[in-house]
Task: inverse folding
């Protein structure tokens, strides 16, 4: 099967406000980006009063169809990397257990099946942390199952799970360097 001339970044956002504004800002630094937006993400982006205005080379796919038609692009080499940021505990759990019933979980599954390196910015990575809610900073206490699922996701092949905004920025920079220099794909963990 032939590959496309210029493979693209895929970025999926879920229904989390945890670093959603910063994640949207990072998207602006990537050319040739396709954005996959879950139904919950559409709601959250509105609650946080953020705009998903992207450059001319960027496309937005929304979770509107049961079969998630855009995932077929993974079969044809359209994407060199998938980023899921931010990723809710719900999305992480579905990914860990192989449930592909949303646009985001479908693109994650297809990226894995097509050996496309994936970076996941999981929201629930510590027993307690601060996060920005629509009305200000709040403290959250992820459940043990949320932390266990994040740990399980770190074991997936070709999947890098990051826990901080700085790690997300570093993982994207590392992937850019790999793509520019033809280095091996991201390691998992």
Result:
């Amino acid at each position: 099967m032939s590959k496309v001339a210029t493979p693209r970044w895929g970025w999926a956002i879920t229904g989390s406000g945890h670093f959603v504004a910063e994640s949207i800002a990072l998207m602006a630094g990537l050319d040739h980006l396709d954005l996959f937006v879950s139904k919950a993400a559409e709601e959250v982006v509105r609650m946080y009063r953020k705009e998903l205005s992207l450059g001319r080379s960027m496309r937005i796919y929304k979770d509107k169809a049961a079969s998630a038609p855009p995932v077929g692009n993974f079969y044809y080499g359209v994407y060199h990397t998938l980023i899921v940021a931010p990723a809710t505990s719900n999305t992480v759990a579905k990914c860990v257990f192989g449930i592909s019933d949303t646009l985001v979980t479908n693109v994650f599954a297809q990226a894995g099946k097509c050996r496309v390196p994936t970076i996941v910015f999981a929201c629930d990575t510590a027993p307690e942390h601060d996060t920005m809610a629509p009305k200000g900073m709040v403290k959250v206490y992820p459940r043990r199952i949320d932390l266990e699922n994040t740990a399980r996701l770190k074991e997936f092949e070709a999947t890098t799970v990051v826990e901080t905004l700085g790690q997300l920025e570093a993982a994207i920079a590392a992937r850019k360097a790999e793509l520019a220099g033809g280095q091996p794909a991201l390691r998992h963990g």
Observations:
- The chain has one domain: 8-181.
